[in-house]
Amino acid sequence: MKEIYKKALEAISSKTDLVPQVGIILGSGLGGLAQRIENAVVIPYAEIPGMKASTAPGHAGQFVLGTIGNKTVICMQGRLHFYEGHTMQEIAFPVRLMKLLGIKTLVVTNACGAVNTSFSIGDLMLIEDHINMMGANPLTGENEADFGPRFCDMTFAYTPRLRELAAQVAEEQGILLQKGVYLGYMGPNYETPAEIRAFRTMGADTVGMSTVPEVLTASHCGLEVLAISLITNMAAGIQKVKLSEQEVIDTAAARAKVLQGLVEGILERI
Ligand code: HPA
Questions:
Q1: Across 201-250, where does the E strand assignment appear?
Q2: What CA–CA distance (Å, rounded) separates 181 from 184?
Q3: Buried b (16+ CB within 10 A) or exposed e, 19-51
Q4: In DSSP terms, which residues pair with 228 in a beta bridge?
Q5: Is residue 269's pLDDT more than 90?
Q6: How many beta carbons lie within 10 A of that of residue 200, not counting itself?
């Protein structure tokens, strides 16, 4: 194991001896789930060797460990984005750290724009697959064989068992859960209307600036993955209005509780 992982693990084990079962990455404006963690141990990224700071709005930049229902979890309250200038390897680091801490499952949430015009603002979407249009990949460079193989299969990256479970819990909770393909875009600008038309032709249902690097990393190291998007806006050009960060934040705030309830219901039965 690389020295930096050992140092990071030491920094965490000096604060807690909890062994998390599930890792959770919380998207823009969706950090509230971390408040539901009982007996929480909070560790700012700045205190962990190898971890970069989270600079995006609505991303606190800390790990929160503890329990939600019957599960021991480690939550990333605030994620790292490629557009912040972090390298893909830096974005991979916390996912691998959570794997080393013991997680078997990674749950990812994000805020995204709808490319599929049959979706509505405020809808939740279960990610069934993704398209990587970020122009980079965390698995390039020397393969860290401790974590996984050079050539990593992505056929079942979004774990079918967890997708079925999510659909079942959503139905029980009376939540409409759309299903589709998430396209990862580098950002930080929102897409052009022409890009959105192109992405629709390619098979994208939603678009966002995260998730893909973390899921590639998780899949490579053998983690089960569940990813749910909150649609905060229709993608560029669909409605004849400008996209705004405020709309993303406001919709995330308005719908965060529903997503939280769904994730908690799923966690109980993972
Ligand atoms: N595009 C990219 N990222 C996003 C969007 C979008 O429309 N909405 C929220 N995150």
A1: 206-208, 224-234
A2: 10
A3: ebbbbbbbbbbbbebbebbeebebbebeebebb
A4: 109, 126
A5: yes
A6: 17
Cis peptide before 188 (omega within 30 of 0): yes
Q: Is 27 in the pocket of ligand 1 (CB under 6 A)?
A: no
Interhelix angle 3-13/88-101, rounded to 10 degrees, is 50
- d(CA 193, CA 119) in angstroms, rounded, equals 17
Averaged confidence pLDDT in the chain: 95
Q: Do the beta carbons of residue 114 and residue 31 sit within 8 Å?
A: no
Determine the distance separating the centroid of ligand 1 and the alpha carbon of 64, expressed in angstroms.
Answer: 26
Exposed e or buried b per residue across 214-240, where buried means at least 16 C-beta atoms within 10 angstroms of its C-beta? bbbbbbbbebbbbbbbbbbbbbbebee
How buried is residue 13: exposed, middle or buried, by Cβ count under 10 Å (0-12/13-18/19+)? exposed
For ligand 1, whether the C-beta of 234 sits within 6 Å is no
Per-residue DSSP letter, 46? G
Asked whether 196 lines ligand 1 (CB < 6 A), one says no
User: Beta 105-114 vs 224-234: how paired, if at all?
Assistant: parallel
Tokens (6 digits) for 215: 């899921």
In which band, very low, low, confident or very high, does the pLDDT at 58 lie, cut at 50, 70 and 90?
Answer: low
The full set of domains in the chain, from first to last, is 3-267 (3.40.50.1580)
Ligand 1 centroid–CA 113 distance in Å is: 4
Amino acid at residue number 248: V
- The one-letter code for the residue type at 170 is A
- Cα(141) to ligand 1 centroid in Å equals 29
Q: Note if the pTM is more than 0.85.
A: yes
